[in-house]
């Protein structure tokens, strides 16, 4: 208390100065018209800015739930795209049946864990068995293929990303029927190799690479990347293309697990020898 | 009672009367703005004895400022500026300390500390006073050039009048 009083006596003049100036400012703002107007308008200006900022901060806290909601909506919309359907068109003599049967459905999921960049990259997603996830289902993101589900737990699943030596997907060139397999050879995560394209195929750098749908894991026509460089393989008459991937495997945060509803049907063809 | 205190009390009323009854009439400007005003009343704060307590200086400045504002119909503006001047007085005094220091009983006048010293002292404080006053009048720094123009004209005129008064009366205390 005594030290407080000491400060008060030592700084008394300054405190008095501040108090008197506050009184003066009060008098000026209250009894002088133009200064009062300036004060009230700047007050509303700054309080408006402050309100905007607090509002933005509050909205930021709800971003997580909004993201989850948007993922659900996207999954819903993706399953309505044309490539999510199995065409049951039957050409018979008299009847043309245009009905479409749902082939792919999507489960929105958030990536909750990423393995470090030491060889094969895997992710853990927050959807699992109870949501309908099964091994060998594909995962796509907003910018292309993310990977393939390898292990499924009750509520989570592990995904081998495209940057995994066991992952090889069927991919082709948009607008042409040539296809090959797309895989990663290690090194730069932004690049992959599209191999087994026949030598006579008209390929040029800048062509879009998309999934073919032949592997029954991904729907047809998901754009994956663009061709960067073309290299002729000696001996087997095929081309090896370097592909610049659209997806950034470090910034990707969410994906959609692809369920092929006709998988059992197609699997019968593989098992019945 | 000390002569210095007596003189200060007399100056308080005389400078107030001089300011509100005569110098208030002096104003010059163009385009609806007054660019020249004469402020003589800060002389009261300037000439207070050196040993005056800082809080008393501030209090006297506040009262004199409010009395001036009463006549100028601008509550708080002259008072705010004069309180600021009173606060800055001790800082300006410590900057302008002569080599041998102040005599404890000295008064900050032309006759005791010299014309050169007094002009610096009065010039600096009047500058601060008018700058604060015109800032309060505009209440924003958006029209800073206007503030500087007003400051320039008013400072010249006020210094002239202030020095004339000091040279005529040449107070010792």
Features of the shown structure:
heterodimer; A: 273 residues; alpha+beta; 6-stranded antiparallel β-barrel; 6-stranded antiparallel barrel; 5 helices; 16 strands; 30% helix; elongated; B: 173 residues; mainly alpha; two-stranded antiparallel sheet; globular
Largest sheet of chain A: 6 strands, antiparallel, barrel
Major β-sheet annotation of chain B? 2 strands, antiparallel
Low-confidence stretches of chain B: none
Give the number of DSSP strands of chain B. Answer: 2
Protein architecture, described:
The complex is a heterodimer of chains A (273) and B (173). By secondary structure, chain A is α+β, with helices and mostly antiparallel strands. Chain A has helices spanning 2-10, 12-31, 33-61, 63-78, 263-271, and strands spanning 85-87, 90-91, 96-97, 100-102, 104-114, 122-125, 138-141, 144-152, 157-161, 168-173, 179-183, 191-198, 208-211, 223-232, 238-245, 254-260. Chain A contains 5 helices and 16 strands. In chain A, strand 14 (223-232) and strand 15 form a beta hairpin. Chain B has 173 residues and is mainly α. Chain B contains 7 helices and 2 strands, in the order αββαααααα. In chain B, strands 1-2 form a two-stranded antiparallel ribbon. Chain B is globular and about 50 Å long. The chains are: A alpha+beta (273), B mainly alpha (173). Chain A binds chain B through residues 12-14, 16-17, 20-21, 23-28, 30-32, 34-35, 38-39, 42, and chain B through 53-55, 58-59, 61-62, 65, 69, 74-77, 79-80, 83-84, 86-87, 90, 136-137, 139-140.
């Amino acid at each position: 208390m005594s030290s407080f009083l000491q400060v008060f006596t030592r700084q008394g003049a300054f405190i008095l100065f501040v108090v008197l100036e506050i009184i003066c400012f009060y008098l000026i703002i209250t009894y002088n018209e133009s200064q009062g107007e300036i004060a009230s308008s700047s007050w509303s200006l700054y309080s408006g800015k402050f309100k905007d900022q607090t509002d933005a901060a509050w909205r930021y806290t709800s971003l997580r739930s909004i993201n989850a909601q948007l993922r659900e909506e996207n999954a819903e919309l993706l399953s309505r795209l044309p490539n999510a359907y199995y065409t049951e068109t039957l050409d018979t003599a008299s009847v043309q049946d245009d009905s479409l049967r749902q082939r792919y459905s999507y489960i929105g999921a958030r990536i909750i864990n990423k393995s470090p960049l030491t060889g094969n990259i895997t992710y853990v997603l927050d959807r699992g068995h109870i949501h309908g996830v099964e091994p060998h289902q594909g995962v796509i993101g907003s910018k292309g293929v993310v990977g393939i589900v390898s292990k499924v737990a009750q509520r989570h699943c592990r995904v081998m990303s495209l940057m995994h030596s066991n992952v090889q997907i069927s991919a082709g060139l948009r607008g042409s029927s040539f296809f090959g397999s797309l895989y990663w050879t290690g090194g730069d995560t932004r690049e992959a190799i599209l191999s087994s394209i026949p030598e006579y195929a008209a390929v040029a750098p800048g062509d879009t690479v998309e999934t073919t749908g032949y592997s029954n894991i991904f729907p047809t026509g998901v754009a994956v990347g663009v061709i960067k460089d073309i290299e002729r393989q000696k001996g087997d008459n095929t081309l090896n293309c370097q592909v610049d991937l659209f997806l950034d495997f470090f910034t990707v945060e969410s994906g959609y697990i692809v369920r092929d509803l006709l998988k059992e049907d197609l699997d019968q063809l593989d098992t019945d020898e | 009672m000390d002569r210095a205190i007596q003189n200060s009390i007399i100056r308080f009323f005389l400078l107030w009367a001089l300011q509100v009854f005569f110098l208030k009439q002096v104003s010059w400007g163009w385009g609806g703005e007054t660019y020249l005003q004469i402020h003589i009343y800060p002389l009261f704060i300037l000439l207070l004895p050196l040993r005056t307590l800082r809080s008393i200086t501030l209090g006297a400045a506040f009262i004199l400022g409010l009395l001036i504002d009463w006549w100028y119909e601008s509550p708080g503006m002259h008072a705010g500026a004069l309180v600021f001047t009173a606060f800055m007085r001790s800082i300006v005094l410590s900057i302008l300390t002569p080599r041998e220091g102040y005599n404890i009983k000295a008064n900050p006048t032309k006759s005791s500390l010299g014309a050169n010293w007094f002009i610096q002292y009065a010039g600096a404080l009047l500058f601060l006073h008018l700058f604060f006053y015109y800032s309060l009048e505009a209440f924003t720094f958006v029209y800073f050039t206007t503030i500087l123009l007003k400051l320039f004209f008013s400072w010249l005129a006020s210094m002239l009048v202030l020095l004339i008064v000091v040279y005529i009366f040449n107070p010792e205390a």
